[in-house]
Amino acid sequence: MASQKQYVISITIIGVLFFIFGFVTWLNGTLIPFLKLACDLQSDAQALLVTFAFYMAYFFLAVPSSYILEKTGYKKGMAVGLAVMAVGCVLFIPAAAARSFSLFLTGLFVQGMGLSLLQTASNPYISVIGPIASAAQRISIMGICNKVAGALSPLILSAIVLAGASEIETRIQTTTDVLVRNELLQELSQRIIAPYGVMAAVLTLLAAMILFSPLPEIEMEGGDNSEGQPARKSIFQYPYLWLGSLCIFAYVGAEVMAGDVIGTYGKALGMSLDETKNFTSYTLWSMVVGYVIGVLTIPRYLKQEMALKISAITGIVFSAAAFFTTGYISIFCIALLGLANSLMWPAIFPMAIDGLGKFTKIGSAILIMGIAGGAIIPQAYPVLAESLPPATAFMCVVLPCYAYILFYAMRGHRLGKSW
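RE: above sequence
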């Protein structure tokens, strides 16, 4: 009974962490149009540096995070990650005062650093705290926490910082008085201080709570878990892990396109900022639906491999539908990509770390590095959109992602597993 109680407590604590991941991560969908307006950016390519700065932190910090976890353990590592995120939020205060886009990007990078450490610790933790066969189910439960927070966060932030956005945008664009224009921009920029100040305080409190929580430490220092196979001596002897990291690269790129770039896509179709500021939430709610399906079906009715195949095919179908339709129907199809994306992380991560044994921490870090796809892949969209219609540019970016994910689901996850 005590063991079951400890299991429930652990799942609850990690669920709170995944809620935090989602809340902070999916604020980017609102920050893109907000910072484009407040920092007077001249192009969508500049505004999308928001996602670049945030997600590139995972690439640079994932492997160092694994070494930090070797020293601190999972529990203290999670507390450190939350504290680093709080520092990133604090940086938004001077950034807003100076209307410094570079300082905003620095704050986002620091937030990504903290999240990299948290993700490197929490994802393998939730994967191995129970049977590996039901890992996708547990990650789906975490995904519900993550995406409910993600659906709420842009609504909350946009209600604070983008209230009356279209009117403000018109006033800024039409005023000829430089002083008045700067006052409007400064007033808009100041709106971000309060919400990020509150988040910094909450993250600091959570760091202390995690540090003194009953969350148990887990050990994964055993040998290779591949039954009947000799122990491997190098992380490079697991090709399915490296292919899995590339799969996460493709998946997160497609997810950011559907979640963060959907607003930019709507603007390109002629929709107002008052409408597009909430589009990210539509994608996130469709992901919540997908996670609920995952909790109910995996592994009882659906294996992780099959869930990934279905998700990849669904992504291809909805991408094509967005291309062949227009207006709000096209936006609806992109939002439904959230449904396609929902079960990808829960399936890819446990498939890619299965059997790593003593290499689990570094393997997790390599997979977390794949999150850099959210930084790199969306940058292709504004470049393509300069010479192609928005729907064509969008499909050219996301379709190859789903095609590779389908390959990993069908074959890639098995390569090298039986060596």
